[in-house]
Write a structure and sequence with these properties.
The complex is a heterodimer. Chain A is mainly alpha-helical. Chain A is built from 14 helices and no strands. Chain B has helices at 2-36, 50-63, 77-86, 102-107, 134-137, 159-162, 165-175, 185-194, 213-223, 240-252, 265-273, 286-290, 328-338, 341-344, 379-394, 405-421, 426-444, 446-462; strands at 38-44, 66-72, 94-97, 138-139, 142-143, 146-149, 153-158, 202-205, 277-283, 302-306, 311-313, 317-321, 396-398. In chain B, the strands form 4 sheets. Chain B has a 5-stranded mixed sheet. A 4-stranded mixed sheet of chain B has the order 8-9-7-10. Classes of the chains: A mainly alpha, B alpha/beta.
């Protein structure tokens, strides 16, 4: 038997009593965990198996997995999944290199590194809904400063969130502005934690800067990169507030991701059975995606710590 | 003695004082009870709060209670109300919402029937415009709401452009008929095309953003003779008329500002008020803003007319008493007071708020004044405006208000928006929407929906509205 918290706190008691004491100590946390995590999840699973529609005053019936089967023939689900996938791909492709570049830049700074990092982090600190509101002003077709500046250089006046083709890139731009500093922060912390002697040895051996980045930083940072990507993918999967404020899922369904679609089904149509099935499905997809990312970035053969 | 006398006096004083204190205490407690009541009013945030603010002191004076506004965002109001009321929350005493929520809210038992409270303060319903009386505020013969805002889409156009002899001649030459206020949708498209001269002038604009673009589609659809449903609840939009109407709306984008898919209520007001659009279909309160120098660059250049063929009546607002209010009598007094003829008239023509007339007595050009009693339009403009409202109501096309109404409408809005965005053809969009509508009908119970729809249509026919 290893050392337990209970063992430390009551060294004189026999083993069984010590374990009970430990359980008692953990009980409040376990109760909170059950109430806040297990119960809602279990309730969502139960509701997902019923035809529960809040606005129809008849008792909900058990329908088995019909809600889940319906999802696969729902064109709005597939279009929202496509939007979600495009958004996540955009986030990863744009934010990782930019965040990494910023982290490298900051690591190389000998003065004002903290000040620069703090200033860069301001967008991440701002509430997403507030940021989205600010961007809605920036994107304004007629009076927005973005179009004013583009007009000065004769670059035309895009309709940003009003355009079916530009709306999703506009959201990506907002998300990039808001969350790239977060990526930078995680990678910068990782860079600071790297052993200096290896880098020093590489320099002595004549490695160029890009070689150090490619052959030392990136492989050694793999676990941190994994965590950063998993976090950003999970967060992107749940993106809601900037969509709600800036596009409401439109034009059409061009920016309606899975989270927003689930909200519409659950809280506009109050089809709670179907919305719960959508939520459970998302949970499964996210869990699989996160697991795959973690495996990918923690492969021992690639030098990742496990 | 002194002590005894003092004691005697003191005891008498005590008794007298006690009685006085008791009596005054009771009186004080009565006032305190009245003063202790604060009625919470749910209303969509912004300009529609103003009439309640303007009348808060009068409500206190007349009835002794305070009122507090709990504003909700315009978008998301339905979701918030349903979640709150499903939990039987008593946070709201008075609810202000569009009547298309009424079908669901009555079916779900969210509202108090108001007829038993009429003796407290006569709502004077005989003066209501018939179209807003039975069809809008009643269900199955019972009154569940009182009017706050009688909405209607109206055509607002630039008289200087329409009256310009050069423009008239050029138009005649191009289209072979006179430049005039359009009375058909074909004429509307001609005029819109004619005045499209980007980037300074566009022929028209419309609400194309998600939320209410369906209303501009239904406005055309109704004008072309379409109906919400057939008698067997087959969706009327999935038809040649529906496709024609939606195709027309999609085509209208060519005559509108480039950011048309972003145009919502305030933006639509703005594009007309800043002089960049020749004509718009918009809610009728735009007229008041056109004639307000603080808001408009086209003061004196606004002409008002009913929409071509039919005028759709989207949204509107009614006031109701929550079934879970702890002060239903007081809440009733509040809503009844707010729509009394002499109170409603102070806000239905005020350009600062968005309320529109709903009583026969309001359809009087001399009544077009703001809440302080100042005229807000020239007599000629006021007459044109009021005449346009009357003509629009006579050709009014009602907003769907049966159980499931908000869901039917939101789905329609989604697919109209998809067609406007170009991601679906008009035919595909309406066909997909009709499938969704069929699912809603099925879920609500087809025969129940048929009965509800038929009763709702009958209520309009009974007041002389063509359907």
């Amino acid at each position: 038997m290893g050392t337990t918290v209970a063992g430390i706190l009551s060294p004189g008691r026999p083993g069984v009593t010590r374990n009970w004491f430990g359980w008692w100590l953990m009980a409040p946390a376990l109760v909170m965990f059950a109430a806040n995590c297990i119960f809602p999840l279990a309730y969502a699973v139960v509701v997902s198996l019923k035809n529960y529609q809040m606005l129809i005053p008849v008792p909900a019936r058990f329908v088995g997995i019909r809600n889940f089967l319906d999802i696969f023939s729902d064109p709005l689900f597939w279009s929202s999944l496509k939007v979600t996938a495009s958004f996540i791909a955009g986030v990863v492709v744009l934010q990782f290199p930019a965040g990494f570049a910023l982290a490298l830049l900051l690591r190389g700074m000998h003065r004002f590194q903290t000040l620069a990092a703090t200033l860069l982090l301001i967008p991440t600190i701002i509430a997403s809904s507030v940021a989205a509101f600010q961007w809605s002003q920036l994107f304004n077709y007629q009076f927005g400063p973005l179009n004013f500046l583009l007009g000065l250089f004769g670059l035309g006046q895009p309709t940003w969130t009003a355009s079916p083709t530009l709306a999703l890139p506009s959201l990506l731009l907002v998300d990039f502005w808001e969350w790239t500093p977060f990526m930078m922060l995680l990678l910068l912390a990782g860079l600071h934690a790297l052993p200096g002697d290896i880098i020093e040895a590489a320099r002595v051996d004549g490695s160029r800067r890009w070689q150090i980045v490619w052959r030392i930083y990136l492989p050694l940072l793999r676990p941190v990169i994994g965590i950063a990507l998993v976090l950003r993918v999970l967060m992107s999967f749940k993106t809601f507030d900037i969509i709600y404020v800036l596009t409401a899922g439109g034009p059409g369904t061009s920016t309606e991701n899975l989270a927003y679609y689930t909200y519409i089904v659950g809280f506009r149509y109050f089809n709670l059975g179907y919305a719960s099935a959508l939520a459970i499905l998302q949970l499964i997809v996210v869990a699989v995606l996160a697991k795959a990312l973690i495996r990918l970035t923690h492969r021992p053969s690639l030098g990742g710590a496990t | 003695m002194t002590q005894g006398r003092s004691f005697t006096i003191g005891r008498r004083s005590l008794v007298q004082g006690g009685l006085a204190a008791g009596i005054s205490g009771i009186a004080w407690r009565d006032r305190a009870d009245a003063a202790a009541i604060t009625l919470n009013i749910e209303v969509d945030a912004g300009q529609n709060e103003l009439p309640f603010r303007w009348n808060a002191a009068a409500l206190k004076t007349h009835f002794g209670f305070d009122s507090k506004l709990l504003s909700l965002p315009f978008v998301g109001q339905y979701e918030k109300l349903v979640t709150e009321l499903t939990a039987r929350s008593s946070v709201y005493d008075v609810l202000v919402f569009p009547p298309y929520f009424l079908g669901d809210f009555v079916a779900l038992g969210f509202l108090r029937e108001l007829d038993p409270y009429f003796h407290l303060l006569d709502p004077k319903l005989a003066d209501y415009l018939p179209v807003y009386r039975d069809p809008v505020i009643k269900r199955a013969g019972k009154t569940y709401a009182l009017m706050y805002d009688g909405d209607l889409l109206q055509l607002t156009y630039r008289t200087d452009l329409f009256g310009d002899p050069k423009e008239k001649a050029a138009f005649q030459q191009k289209y072979g008929h006179d430049l005039a206020v359009p009375t058909t949708w074909e004429e509307f498209m001609h005029v819109a095309e004619f005045f499209t001269r980007p980037p300074n002038l566009y022929g028209t604009a419309f609400y194309a953003a998600r939320g209410f673009c369906y209303a501009w589609f239904i406005n055309i659809f109704a004008g072309l003779g379409g109906h919400w449903f057939e008698a067997d609840m087959k969706p009327g939009i999935d038809s040649d008329t529906g496709v024609q109407a939606l195709t027309m709306l999609v085509d209208m984008k060519k005559f509108a500002p480039p950011n048309i898919l972003q145009v919502d209520y305030p933006t639509l007001n703005e594009v007309f008020l800043n002089g960049s659009t020749a004509m718009v279909v918009q809610w009728d309160d735009l007229a008041l803003k056109v004639e307000n120098p603080a808001m408009s660059k086209v003061v004196g250049k606004g002409g008002f007319a009913p929409c071509p063929v039919r005028s759709y009546m989207p949204y509107s607002r009614v006031m109701a008493v929550s079934a879970f209010s702890k002060h239903p009598a007081e809440a009733y007094k509040l809503i009844s007071y707010m729509q009394q003829p002499n109170v409603g008239i102070t806000y239905v023509y005020d350009p600062e708020c968005g309320e529109d007339p709903y009583r026969e007595s309001y359809l009087n050009p001399a009544a077009v004044k703001n809440h302080t009693g100042q005229p807000t339009m020239s007599p000629e403009a006021a007459k044109s405006y009021v005449d346009a409202i009357r003509a629009g109501l006579e050709a009014g096309y009602p907003e769907l208000s049966i159980p499931g109404g908000p869901r039917y409408i939101d789905i329609l809005d989604l697919y109209v928006n998809q067609a406007l965005a170009g991601s679906l053809s008009p035919k595909a969009a309406l066909s997909a929407c009709a499938n969704e509508w069929a699912s809603i009908t099925e879920a609500e119970g087809k025969s129940d929906q048929q009965k509800a729809y038929s009763a709702w249509i009958d209520s309009f026919k009974q007041v002389g509205l063509k359907y």
